[in-house]
Amino acid sequence: MAKQGKKYRDVAARVEPDRLYTLEEAFALVKETSYVKFDPTVEVHLRLGIDPRHADQNIRTTVALPHGTGKMVRVLVFCQNDAVQGALDAGANFAGNDELIARIDKENFFDFDVAIATPDMMGKVGRIGRKLGPRGLMPNPKSGTIVPAEDLPKTIREVRGGRVEFRNDKTGILHVAIGKLSFTPEQLHENFVALMDAVKGAKPSGAKGTFVRTVTLTSTMGPGVPVNPLLAQSAALN
């Protein structure tokens, strides 16, 4: 494992071992322990009481963050006919059908963050699933990225405005960005509450015991700050 640098060690020392912080304390400490010169992303890491080996216990859903993530989201839409211009007018960066599919397939074009498709395009999009899938770019009904042409404008606006897809990794942990460090504590708190509400709403019926086991806040390259999971969940109820 790579040795941590002096700057990291200095700020990490401010996080008390074995202490579970309140949300307010954690957000303040995340800001205090950031030492990078850019505006880092604030992330939430949740260890869940699920067994990811069972398909029915895996989580994949979306959340609309009230204040977005602070990141410019590049949207590509697979559609045809009049829907192409409608998607572009709604804010899509790229929209089209065969020519976009060929560009991705032959030129390895991946200058986008989210791909949306209308149902009638999925037969063609499936041909490049081997390239989109591993990058998390394959349109999927669970993530709300396969929608009728008439719903494209609304979906594009939601995606650009702060709708985030999340899924657990193979160890049962969620890693979700909830904003930038430059956000106000209130903005980060409201985004966090929206995420927790979405996580609790996505709890699989097969999950047993404690569902949210650990909650950790961190910023890009910063140390993790453990949050009291009971307080984190009760915040989602307010």
From TrEMBL:
GO terms under cellular component: ribosome
Keywords, comma-separated and alphabetical: Repressor, Ribonucleoprotein, Ribosomal protein, RNA-binding, rRNA-binding, Translation regulation, tRNA-binding
Transmembrane segments: none
InterPro entries given in the database record: Ribosom_uL1_bac-type, Ribosomal_uL1, Ribosomal_uL1-like, Ribosomal_uL1/biogenesis, Ribosomal_uL1_3-a/b-sand, Ribosomal_uL1_CS
Domain of life: Bacteria
UniProt KW Transferase keyword: no
Pfam families named among the record's database cross-references: Ribosomal_L1 (PF00687)
Keyword RNA-binding applies: yes
Biological role: Binds directly to 23S rRNA. The L1 stalk is quite mobile in the ribosome, and is involved in E site tRNA release. Protein L1 is also a translational repressor protein, it controls the translation of the L11 operon by binding to its mRNA.
Quaternary structure annotation from Swiss-Prot or TrEMBL: Part of the 50S ribosomal subunit.
Similarity comment: family membership: Belongs to the universal ribosomal protein uL1 family.
Protein's name according to its UniProt entry: Large ribosomal subunit protein uL1
Primary gene name: rplA
